[in-house]
Specification:
alpha+beta; Tetracycline Repressor, domain 2; seven-stranded antiparallel beta sheet; 15 helices; about 5% strand
Length: about 475
């Protein structure tokens, strides 16, 4: 009896296991389709291990089996192949929306004004094909083209006043004009900071004042850079060749400042040539040029005084009642000094004029520069006249000098021949050219900085809206 009960219990247990397995198979949902990105905020639940009991063929009455309801099964989280799920603790990245582009009203021209009632600082408008054909081409750098392109960001909102025949040609041609006297202050940012100098655009946001400052610097570079710097480069090259032929003793005059002044002039000129738009906006650079110009003036005065000292010595020997061997030796020594000092004075005069011209090219000129340069040129011309007169008088003295009859006769003759040779080498052309260079710088300073006049540029855009060509236009 006990054995039969035991067998019945075993049969009931097997039947329950079979029923549980069948119920689990029917209730298991189908696998959800793979999602492209797993949700980062819900951590994946660990999969529940499922064990299956092999079915046992045994039947028992259904009424006698009371199985317990199975626990709900959580399906395992699946991650598609090749997709890495984000960490559960990292919040989703929020991307800020891009700022909308300013809406600029249509207008016949864009204007940038300050507080003065004398007219706008900058005007941007469309240009005709005829004006483009008559303008001279310019060669801006790629960076300058980019800055000019940025100014024309809203140029498509400009009305085209050209006729129907010119509409196709003038559609992408624009004119930028600057009021006289505003290019340099605008480039340096001085207009916006002046009392009542806040710049306003009409229509609003049509012209960015910061972009206008960069464009003003570029216009100065394209108009004023070649006017001053190209000719100055040739002058500096000639001056370096003349300085290389000088004796080291002459280069040491004035504590050896000539060499450093010439090197600095070459270096600062190169920096202005390579980045003129940036040089005119550097206060430290401009101040350094001014200080070095003052040093060049001091060196010129030192060399000019040394040349006058040598002339005074020759004058004293030529005025002596008797011109003998002592007077000849002193005259020969003074002539040698004068010849070297004249060559040195020519180089120093060129360096002085070069520094003043570079300073003018940056929009600056020293107070009293015209007066000091005129005085220097007059002093050069007076020195040439004095040397010419001294040469005649000394030559007369050499002709009337009595040759000694003692053993020093050969030395006297050699010194006299050397003095005559030096007199023939007192060339006036070098000092005359240096004086002419100083005179041209004086004329440039008196004419005023070219960037103070009204400036204008013509721009033509390509299909991508970039400044493809730039030409110089006559400002109205």
């Amino acid at each position: 009896m006990g054995e039969a009960v035991w067998m019945l219990v075993v049969a009931l247990a097997l039947a329950c296991a079979v029923l549980v397995g069948l119920l689990l198979r029917k209730r298991r949902p189908e696998a959800p389709p793979a999602e492209p990105i797993a949700e980062p905020e819900k951590p994946a639940a660990p999969p529940v291990a499922r064990t299956e009991t092999p079915p046992v063929v045994a039947k028992a009455p259904a009424a006698e089996s009371t199985p317990h309801p199975p626990a709900p099964r959580v399906p395992p989280a699946t991650t598609p192949a090749g997709v890495v799920a984000a960490p559960a603790t990292r919040p989703p990245r929020s991307v800020a929306p891009a700022a909308p582009a300013p809406v600029v009203a249509r207008a016949p021209r864009f204007v940038l004004r300050d507080a003065l009632p004398i007219g706008p600082v900058m005007v941007l408008e469309r240009a005709s094909g005829a004006a483009w054909a008559q303008a001279a081409p310019l060669e801006p750098t790629p960076m300058q083209r980019d800055a000019l392109t940025a100014l024309l960001a809203h140029a498509d909102r400009l009305d085209n006043p050209a006729g129907a025949e010119e509409a196709a040609t003038a559609a992408a041609t624009f004119l930028v004009r600057l009021r006289g006297g505003t290019a340099l202050p605008l480039a340096r940012g001085e207009l916006a900071g002046a009392p009542g100098g806040d710049l306003q655009s009409e229509p609003p946001q049509a012209i960015d004042p910061t972009q206008a400052a960069g464009v003003a610097a570029i216009m100065l570079a394209l108009h004023c850079g070649p006017t001053y710097l190209s000719g100055l480069r040739a002058r500096v090259t000639e001056t370096k060749s003349l300085a290389a032929a000088l004796h080291p003793k002459l280069m040491a005059q004035g504590d050896g400042k000539l060499k450093s002044l010439l090197q600095d002039l070459t270096r600062y000129l190169r920096e202005a040539e390579e980045n003129y738009a940036g040089a005119i906006r550097k206060p430290v650079f401009i101040a350094r040029v001014g200080d070095t110009t003052a040093q060049a003036e001091q060196l010129w005065q030192t060399v000019a005084e040394a040349a006058e000292t040598a002339r005074a010595q020759i004058e004293a020997q030529a005025a002596a009642p008797r011109f003998g061997e002592v007077q000849l030796e002193r005259s020969l020594s003074a002539l040698r000094d004068l010849q070297g000092l004249r060559r040195l004075l020519e180089v120093v005069s060129r360096v002085l004029a070069g520094w003043h011209l570079l300073r003018l090219a940056l929009g600056e000129s020293a107070t009293g520069a015209v007066a000091s340069l005129r005085a220097a040129r007059a002093r050069l011309e007076a020195g040439v006249e004095t040397d010419r007169d001294l040469a005649r008088r000394l030559d007369t003295s050499l002709e009337g000098a009595a040759v000694p009859d003692y053993v020093g006769k050969a030395e006297f003759v050699a010194n006299r021949n050397a003095a005559r040779e030096l007199l023939g080498k007192l060339d006036e052309a070098g000092l005359a050219e240096a004086g002419e260079f100083i005179g041209r710088v004086v004329e440039s300073i008196e004419a005023g900085f070219a960037g103070r006049a009204p400036l204008a540029l013509l721009l033509q855009l390509d299909a991508q809206g970039r400044a493809a060509e730039v030409r110089a236009a006559a400002a109205a």
